[in-house]
Design goal:
hydrolase; Inositol monophosphatase; about 260 residues; 8-stranded mixed sheet; D-Maltodextrin-Binding Protein, domain 2
Length: about 260
Amino acid sequence: MTNAINEVSDVAKRIAMQASAIPMSHFRAPLNITDKADDSPVTIADQKTETFIRHALECSFPDHGIFGEEYGISGSLEGETWIVDPIDGTRSFITGSPLFGMLMGYLVEGEPRLGLVRMPALNETYVGVPGVGASCNDLPIRCRETQALDDALVYINEAERIQKMNPALFTRLCTIGHTRRMAYDCYPHALVASGQIDAVIDCGLEPYDYLPLVGLVHAAGGIITDWGGNALTLESDGRVVTAATPELHAQVLSVLND
């Protein structure tokens, strides 16, 4: 099994590295931007990148299902499945921020077996295989061991959305931890996996936003669930908590559900 998952990991990393050239060829260049039905922006870079990834996956794993942000589901999601977000953080991408990512997750019967976060503009590739380990650019990474929320370095993603959804909760979140930062998208979750920060509160996510993170965070020794503490699945409601330790995770959930 280890040899097989290592082969899958090597293929995923190769595809992500090759696909990175597409968004980078459009980064900080003039772009036509279209709003989708949910008012989220999409560009030709999103579409071309997913097309490339899908084709590469289909060539390497013709029997695997694929669920991508731009082109939906092909094949079955009941067996071996890839979850793909070609540009996670299109708003970052179109505003010239280098903090957009590329996400790929490999699931077997719904169980995350590999998570990959590629940061094209930063040239960083985070890969995690639960039970094997996690790496950034092939160097081992692991979550911090912070257990007390008062000592934690916390990122609050989608702050405007949380404030609009629950002003009282947003006020509480602005007081937690040793240090707080407002952020977006996948990179803060990768920072938890790499031991740079301790926790991320996130919301408004789709399966292609959060499922690729699960394998990475678990492989690095962290916890990632919904706001109720439940495992993330295709049916989760998009509210996500990532934490470095079980103790810290429990404290964040307590704040969210107070």
